[in-house]
Amino acid sequence: MKTGIIIICYNNEYEIDKDICIKYINDVRDIEFCLVNNNSEDNTFELLKDISETCKNVSVVNINKYKSSRLAIKAGARFMFNEYNLKQIGFITTNTFCKFENLGMLIKFIQDNQLNILKYNEKILNVKETKLTLFQSLFSVMDYLAKNN
C-alpha cells in the first residue's frame, strides 16, 4: 500500500524545473504525489500538468479561488482519498516548499527520506488505539522528518 504526499503550490513558476522534477519523481517508489495549484497567477498550473502527464504517480488538483493552506491541503486529501488506496497522506505547505531552492530539490529530499516517510504509519498506529479519520490522519512531512532525523 502506498503513501500520499500533497504539495501545495502558489505562484511557484520559477521554482519548478519540469525536467528535474520528472527525474526525481520517477525515482520515488510507493509514493503518490498530489500537486495542488492554489489559484496561481503565473504558469505554475501548466507546469504541474506537464509533470503529471509524464509521471504516473503524480496528480494535479487546481483550486480556482485562493484558499488557506489548511483548505488547500483538505482539497488535496479529499482527492487522494477518493482516487487511491493509501496508508496515509502527508503534506507540504507553500511556506515549507519555499525553504527549498526549487520543487526538484524538495522532491529529491522526499526521495532521500522516502523510507522514513513510509514508516510513518507503523509508528503512529503503534501509539494510537483508535482508527483516525481522514483529516486526523494527515501529517506534516517536514515536521515528522524533523522529529525523526
UniProtKB/TrEMBL annotation:
Keyword line? Glycosyltransferase, Transferase
Name all Glycosyltransferase 2-like domain ranges.
5-117
Q: Which Gene3D superfamilies match?
A: Spore Coat Polysaccharide Biosynthesis Protein SpsA, Chain A (3.90.550.10)
> InterPro entries attached here?
Glyco_trans_2-like, Nucleotide-diphossugar_trans
Q: What is its EC number?
A: 2.4.-.-
Where would one find the signal peptide in this protein?
none
Q: Which GO terms describe its molecular function?
A: glycosyltransferase activity
Among Pfam families, the record links this protein to: Glycos_transf_2
Enzyme class, first EC level, given as a word? transferase
Q: What is this protein called?
A: Glycosyltransferase
